[in-house]
Amino acid sequence: MAALLLVPSPAGGHAFPDHADPRVGSTVSEAPSEVRMWFDGEIEPVFSSIRVENADNLRVDKAMEE
């Protein structure tokens, strides 16, 4: 039984944002044609969402059109 406790097993975790372009929290003078994000692991689209907001906290990403 003790040998089973020493065998490594895969552990599920969460992916976290690594970096983005434009940078998270940055202010741009002109709307970018795209926003790109990189994560430190695989994301689960079913449980993930991203919003792009303007200075008035209004959603301005393409999801608002769908």
> Percent of residues in beta strands?
5-15%
Order of helices and strands: HEE
Q: Widest sheet: strand order?
A: 1-2
- Rg (CA only): 18 Å
N- and C-termini, Cα separation: 54 Å
Specify the oligomeric state: single chain
The SS-based structural class is mainly beta
User: How many strands, which pairing sense, and closed or not: the largest β-sheet?
Assistant: 2 strands, antiparallel
- Could you estimate the helical fraction of the residues in percent? under 10%
Shape: elongated
Number of strands: 2
Low-confidence stretches: none
pLDDT averaged residue by residue = 78
Give me the number of helical elements.
Answer: 1
Detailed description of the structure:
There is one protein chain. This protein is mainly beta. The protein has a domain at 16-24 and 34-66. It is built from one helix and two strands; from the N terminus they run H-E-E. The chain has one helix at 2-6; strands at residues 17-21, 36-39. It has a two-stranded antiparallel ribbon with strand order 1-2. It is elongated, with a radius of gyration of 18 Å. 0% of the residues are buried. The mean pLDDT is 78.
